[in-house]
Amino acid sequence: MGRVAQRPGLTVPRQNRVTPYGDLAAVPDRGMFWGNRGQLLGAGGGLARYSRGRLWLICVLDFKGRRRTLWQPGRLTELFFLDEATGLAAGHRPCGECRYRRYQEFKRAWAEAFPGEPAGAAAMDVRLHADRLAAPGIRRSYEAALADLPDGAMVELDGRAWLVLGSRLLAWSHGGYREQRARPRRARVTVLTPRATVAVLAAGYQPVLHPTSGASRATPPPGASRAR
Fold first, then answer.
1. Mind listing the pLDDT tens digit for each residue in 129-179?
2. Of 33, 118, 212, 221, whose CB has the highest number of CB atoms within 10 Å?
3. What span, in angstroms and rounded, lies between the C-alpha atoms of 32 and 24?
4. Among candidates 68, 46, 95, 55, which has minimal Cα distance to 226?
């Protein structure tokens, strides 16, 4: 929730770029969003844990002129996503402050997907946490028919992560979607996006996608060019 900035003179990429599997990689590619899943650093400044707590957010890079210095022990650890679909697949959700309108859209879709259940942040985070992790640091996935999945979901096929988008599958990479293939309608796949989030996508939530997807929801949010 604020503009993120590298320390002066820092040139080596930090291990803070998130994949659809929830893994963290050290690559120079820039992302459209940042977020967090708690304080991940040890006293020496290196990664010490996969996550801490249930509050896993997706934030805009620039918000009300706030500034952050990256990779500070004792503070939440800034992570970066290619786009919103990547963050959702990794198990995060929209921030209710810096992405208020999008959070409200997510919340409305959640209420439609789970009628009669609480749709507040705390309740959502409890369900999401159960759906994204089988054990501390161990991701949970599930099998489903590819034809039944909504746009914006991420799946694994042939050992790679793919974005579901209409009649196409787009191959994910840290730099964008550089390859595509026809969506095989009869295939069963491993779904990377948590079950609850897939239900929210099916209820109409449309994540912001990277411009390389060619989708209408591909316009970068404010501050996208300032990713570090």
1. 999 999 989 999 999 999 999 999 999 999 999 999 999 999 999 999 999
2. 33
3. 16
4. 68
